[in-house]
Design goal:
Layout (H helix, E strand, L loop, with lengths): L2 H14 L3 H10 L2 H7 L4 H7 L10 E6 L8 E6 L4 E6 L7 E6 L2 E10 L2 E9 L6 E7 L3 E6 L10 E5 L3 E6 L7 E6 L3 E7 L2 E6 L4 E5 H10 L14 E3 L14 E8 L2 E12 L3 E13 L4 E5 L5 E5 L5 E4 H4 L6 E5 L12 H10 L4 H5 L6 E5 L11 E4 L6 E6 H7 L7
Parallel strand pairs: 20-22
Antiparallel strand pairs: 1-2, 1-25, 2-3, 4-5, 5-6, 6-7, 8-9, 9-10, 10-11, 12-13, 13-14, 14-15, 16-17, 17-18, 18-19, 18-24, 20-21, 22-23
Length: 416
């Protein structure tokens, strides 16, 4: 062994013997990319940083789960920070659709029949820890599910949104059935959980607030008298960001509610429909709710934040926390024209089954990208932003691969 190699080996042994608590403390202070690189220093560090442990932090890798029902025990995923395709072992998803997600939890559904009545069976699945929660079956007339947080958190709750009318239902651990709530005029376009409350977007772009504590209070406080009326649960009301915004190009825009570092954002995505086949996204507008004045304020710069938009789930990340990515940006994927549809509807069912006959590599190499990036301030660029999506292709689902799993299974990400 040469002198140089001897010195390098000596210092490597020194770093490998670093106390576990200190190593974990360092990992919590650095970006996700640096933590991933640290895990590859030696087997000791990889074992420590790859330890599985519950975490309420969204520290991990943002990825897309490719849509469609398949009979395989693996699901195709896309790591958007490096545009790499990889396979996720997920036996629990065989023959099922992904309805949405929250962090590293997926909402999986499949159609079942009970006495000739069509129902959907819902499971919350964590593909990384192997945990699974079975929920009571639902009718097929719900188009979105929102989780209040991780299932291990206190006062965890699920909310489903009915299509066609403004109707809701809630489930929480210990409940045998869904708790129906509603109904009122209008339709719910999107929903999100933020700061202890569910926020719902109606078809006029008004936002409604329902506090989780009020749901428990209405149900347990007057259990015998509860009749499922929305009036028995306190609701807050926040008007649209701009007067008459709801009827401005409503047919050529998507609207999302997003929780971002404790802020409630309303995001408008404007597009053109080409040849009745392609959806070409052109621009975005973002509004933030001022919780003190209850006024929507237009956001011109997202700062360090990166928004990830999708029909089934929208979220945000810190570019600094990730250590790679484009700050002040919106990551988007293809969304279908019908915002109230579900992937297991009959008209989508045939499309999805047909796509799974096509080899995965061929399907992912089509001219339509699975995702794109819009960066604020790019209006002066030579090439204006445009994201083209097939309106007949179902959207993929954003989820987070946790840092401990990435340390075990994913090589270091190359900085750009």
């Amino acid at each position: 062994m040469t002198k140089e190699r001897s010195i390098r080996h000596k210092y490597l042994n020194y770093w490998c013997s670093l106390p576990h608590d200190i190593l974990k403390l360092i990992a919590e202070k650095v970006s996700f990319v640096d933590c991933l690189s640290m895990s590859k220093v030696c087997m000791s560090w990889n074992g420590i940083l790859g330890e599985e442990h519950p975490s309420t932090q969204r520290h991990g890798l943002p990825c897309l789960l490719v849509s469609g029902r398949g009979n395989s025990e693996t699901k195709t995923c896309i790591s958007v920070l490096e545009n790499r395709v990889w396979e996720l072992k997920l036996p629990e998803s065989c023959g099922k659709y992904c309805w949405g997600s929250f962090c590293d939890w997926l909402i999986m559904v499949n159609n079942v029949y009970s006495h000739e009545i069509k129902l959907i069976k819902v499971n919350l699945v964590n593909p990384f820890s192997g945990s699974q929660i079975n929920l009571p079956p639902l009718g097929p007339f719900f188009h979105k599910m929102v989780l209040s947080g991780l299932p291990c958190e206190k006062n965890f709750m699920c909310m489903v949104v009915q299509r066609g009318i403004f109707g809701l239902a809630f489930w929480f651990p210990g409940a045998k059935l869904w708790l129906p709530v509603g109904k009122k005029k209008g339709q719910c376009q999107d929903a999100v959980f933020c700061n202890g409350s569910f926020y719902l977007l109606d078809d006029r772009l008004n936002v409604w607030k329902i506090d989780v504590r009020d749901i428990y209070s209405a149900y347990y406080g007057s259990l015998k008298a509860y009749d499922g009326a929305l009036s028995q649960i306190k609701t807050g009301f926040y008007g649209a960001p701009v007067q008459n915004l709801w009827n401005e190009d409503t047919k050529k825009s998507f609207t999302y509610l997003v929780e971002s570092v404790g802020k409630l954002l309303l995001v408008r995505r404007y597009f053109n429909l080409k040849r009745n086949k392609w959806i070409e996204t052109k621009k975005f507008e973002v509004y933030a709710l001022d919780f003190e004045t209850l006024i929507w304020k237009k956001v011109e710069d997202l700062g360090d934040e990166m928004l990830f938009l999708g029909k089934s789930y929208s979220t945000s990340f810190s570019a600094k926390e990730l250590g790679v990515g484009i700050r002040n940006s919106i990551y988007l994927c293809n969304d279908p024209m019908d915002r109230l549809a579900t992937e297991w509807d009959d008209k989508w069912d045939d499309e999805c089954d047909l796509r799974h006959v096509i080899p995965k590599k061929t399907r992912l190499r089509t001219g339509v990208k699975n995702w794109g990036i819009f960066t604020f301030g790019n209006e002066n660029n030579d090439k204006p932003f445009c994201f083209r999506g097939d309106k007949n292709m179902w959207t993929d689902t954003w989820f987070t691969a946790p840092s401990w799993w990435c340390c075990r299974n994913i090589p270091p990400i190359q900085r750009k």
